[in-house]
Amino acid sequence: MSFFGVDSMKKICLLILKLIITGICIGLMISGFLYVSHIFIHFSVDLFTQKNLPLILLFALSSFIFAYISSFLLSKDTYIVGSGIPQLEGVIKKDWKNPRWYVTIPLLLLNSWITFFCGLSLGGEGPCVALGGNMAIASNQICKQEDKEFVAIGCGVGFGCALLAPLAGIVYIYEECLHHFSYKSLWKAILVMASAYLVIYFLHNEPILPIVVNESIEFSKSYIYLGLIPLCTLLGILFNKFVLILKDFTKKHENNWFISHRIYFIFLISILILVFYPLLSGSGNIIISKLFEFKNVFFVLLLLFLKFILILLGNNSSATGGIVIPIFTLGGLLGLSYGLIFIYLEIIDLSQLPILVMVSMITLFSVINQSPLTSIVLIGSLIGWPLFMHFEVIIPIIIVILCSHYLSKFFLKTDLYDSILEKLSE
Asked: What are phi and psi of 84, to 5 degrees?
């Protein structure tokens, strides 16, 4: 039968149908996940901020109950530990056994909601990537196929849907998940992404970063951006190193009672923070939403330090949740403290601060994940392509992201997810 024969056309039609249905399912899954997550987050903030002594004692007790449930669920499926992304990269790159998607998906949803409800410094973007990857695995198994590239496509679609940045999601597939480009799979990625994005656009079209960038910094003052190169590089290197150091430490002392039960203490700390100082709770969305209300550099740096510690604790707890929004939070606080200095010096004004903060967020993400191309496309999606394509915007941003990336490579062998994957493979 020729390429254009009946059998070939039937296979092509079935493949297209598989891609569209998988995309729709990913879009529906992530839309529902994010919608319910926002309900849990808002409800927990309203509930835990009631400063009543009996309630505080009850909340402290409840932290141990939630920690026990989370720990129990984690013991049932290692694919829901943390963001779940390194495990899926193991499936894609190291031929790890496929997760039981029919078990992993419901456990991933439930444990993520427990994490968000208790205010741990973890976000929903990692689970969205894992949901996309697991839906792709489900589609493969239902169709009785074994396609590792399709799992990578599912992960990238999950990333693009979570951040409402479909182009960045497509680049993420090849830069982060596969580490190589494939023309053969590009049309599949575009079709799955388009199907998923249409669903989430109509069902849950809420921007992940409530930051509006309306004004750029004049090209004559673009030297201001250059200071972000050493700052974001240093913070990114420190973050990666501390994450890996903590993982090595907990593995080395896993028989220690306190270390083996650390999830209980981290849940307790998170709920107490929710009760007494909710600004520091959660993935960082509260901080990001109030970012430009902070005018004191020392207060911003204190928030940066405390949030850095809380994110490391949350990540080391093994609780289900991602680190993308937490990374954006750290980058935002770093960029804000840096930008406030230039405002005090009257070199820029408040209207130009958002773009500096956004560049800092995405540059830090690029350093930690070693994904400069994804980051460049992502910031274009987040600030808007018309503004991004202006000469005085696109040139400094590309320089900052690429310079930070190559500078960090002197200190980081690979991205954080691959580093964690190597440790999981030991």
From this structure: 85, -5
CB contact at 8 A, 93 and 48 = no
Q: How many CB atoms lie within 10 A of CB 306?
A: 16
H helices of 125-227, where? 125-142, 148-162, 166-172, 183-203, 223-226
pLDDT digits (tens, 9 = 90+) for 240-272: 999 999 999 998 998 999 999 999 999 999 998
pLDDT band at 6 (very low <50, low <70, confident <90, very high): confident
Quickly state the pLDDT bin for 4 (edges 50, 70, 90).
low
Tokens of 366: 């690029």
Asked whether the beta carbons of 320 and 74 are under 8 A apart, the reply is yes
CA distance 394 to 396: 6
For the chain, helix (H) and strand (E) counts, in that order, are 20, 0
Reference 136, options 74, 191, 71, 211; nearest CA is 191
Which residue from 278, 208, 228, 288 is spatially nearest to 41, judged by alpha carbons?
278
123 three-state secondary structure: strand
Neighbour-count burial for 272-281, b at 16+ CB within 10 Å, e otherwise: bbbbeebebb
- Residue given tokens 């990269």 in the structure block: 89
